[in-house]
Amino acid sequence: MKQTLRIASLIASVAVPSTASADQINLQISGFANDSGMARIILMEGAAGYHGEIEAERVVSVHIRDRVANWTADDVPRGTYTLIAHHDTDSNDELDRPYFTLPLEPYGYSNGVWTSIGLPDWEEVAFEVGDSPAIQAIHIRMNAFATLAQMALIGLPSLLVIFGGLALFRRRRSATQS
Asked: Both 158 and 73 in a single domain?
């Protein structure tokens, strides 16, 4: 009797397709300024993953070649996912955000969605992994506000040094001419 039940359950498990069968994601990331650093990819499952309520499904780093990074995942369970990718220029495995939580490294979202402020709506970035490979393309960009912050933090002191030096040079020059 027990043997018959085991055989019946084995036949049933083979005959009924599993809902957790794995499929594939093919991702191409473009927009890199150079090949240094790594492309950092975060794969999140469902809205809960996207909003940080559960851990990311995967976090991987891939090499950049000719300003493009490619990643293939062959064993992703069927479901709804989102991707965030960024150029980890300093290879510290983080999206650097030192000023007002603005990202200081270029980034982008699945489905080619872009926003300068906050996360885009989950519905905009969500995609399905199912019977056929999920093809995704992300073009990373630098946040305009972060670029301005970098310019202000780096450029403003530099300009002050340059113009201060010019003013000092002119004063000394006019003092020697008098």
From this structure: no
